[in-house]
């Protein structure tokens, strides 16, 4: 994903027993993952976090 400032971040969405935040592996139940699931490349997404809302654009989707 790419945020409004042009910064990019990659997440791997995993099951709850595979979470590892140091490797950006987040649970499919997390607010970030729930916001991203089902979306397409180039789609703008609103992510609601405890610190507030963030708008990001999906730049790529890879399946492992």
Task: Walk me through what this model shows.
Helix content is 9%, strand content 31%. It contains 1 helix and 5 strands. It has a 3-stranded antiparallel sheet with strand order 1-5-4. Strands 2-3 form a two-stranded parallel ribbon. The radius of gyration is 11 Å and the shape is globular.
Question: What does the secondary structure layout of this molecule look like, with pairings?
Answer:
Layout (H helix, E strand, L loop, with lengths): L1 E2 L8 E3 L10 E3 L3 H6 L7 E6 L2 E6 L7
Largest sheet: 3 strands, antiparallel
> Order of helices and strands, N to C?
EEEHEE
Number of strands: 5
Described by its quaternary structure, the protein is single chain
Distance, first to last CA = 17 Å
Q: What is the helical fraction, as a range of percent?
A: under 10%
Strand order of the largest sheet: 1-5-4
Share of residues in strands: 25-35%
Low-confidence stretches: none
Q: What's the number of helices? A: 1
Silhouette: globular
Structure classification: mainly beta
Mean of all residue-level pLDDT scores: 95
Rounded to an integer in angstroms, the radius of gyration calculated over CA atoms is 11 Å
Task: Quickly list its features.
single chain, 64 residues, mainly beta, three-stranded antiparallel β-sheet, two-stranded parallel ribbon, 31% strand
């Amino acid at each position: 994903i790419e945020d409004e400032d042009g910064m990019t971040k990659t997440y791997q969405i995993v099951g709850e027993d595979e979470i590892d935040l140091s490797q950006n592996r987040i649970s499919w139940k997390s607010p970030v993952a729930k916001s991203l699931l089902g979306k397409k490349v180039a789609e703008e997404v609103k992510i609601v976090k405890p610190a507030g809302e963030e708008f990001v654009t999906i730049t790529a989707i890879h399946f492992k």
